[in-house]
Amino acid sequence: MNHPIIAIVSRMVQEGDAQLAERALVAVADEEGDLVLSEVIEAMPPRDLVAILREHDASHPSIVGVLVTPASFVKALAMEAKYNDRTHEALRGMINMVLFREDEPDPFIEAMGDSEHGILALADYFSEYHEELELFFQNGTFNFLDCDPVELPKNDNDLEESEMGSSYRQPTDSLQDIQDQDWRELAWRLRCDHYSVFTELLKTLRGRARSATGKLEQTEADKPVKAANDDKEESFL
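and the corresponding structure tokens:
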């Protein structure tokens, strides 16, 4: 599709006004209908799409988030990683906005699971909740008060051995109990409805954690060992 609004929106994004770009897209929907806008969104460069999604004001619905397709969303996620946002706040907002719109989130979860970029985006989304994800996987509940702490597994055999019907796949929390349109609901849907995606997610998070632990251990091992006399001298400080 070659609609003139695509170039206009691209220029607005480059000038740093993503919110104005979104309003321009809303005008297309008002004048030409949602079908035309959906075709426009499908034809937009991912860099422009992700800029609009990242800057969207979460206080009101986003027409871009409503009309974006799973394939286009995954392409946008690939571009989002280039922002190198260590907090991943914008990413979490994007994913929540798109997955928990009025439609079912399953097509988006499946598209993310089929893409390396999608799995990495999920790992970034859950970067602060790895321990909670492990606890939910092992205990089937988000009520962690009665759960024992978990240690990082040395391998991923527990993921491979958790077939449908095992204790790992029978959560005590129902979807209705945790339906918050945030990380808990997404974790539940991944674990219970998209287990293959869930396993890839946990493998990625575990790989990152093992790598970080290995680097820390290596750093400690590389520290120079001070002589006994040095230790005595320091003790007087």
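(Above: one complete record from the training split.) Confidence is low (pLDDT under 50) at residues 232-237.
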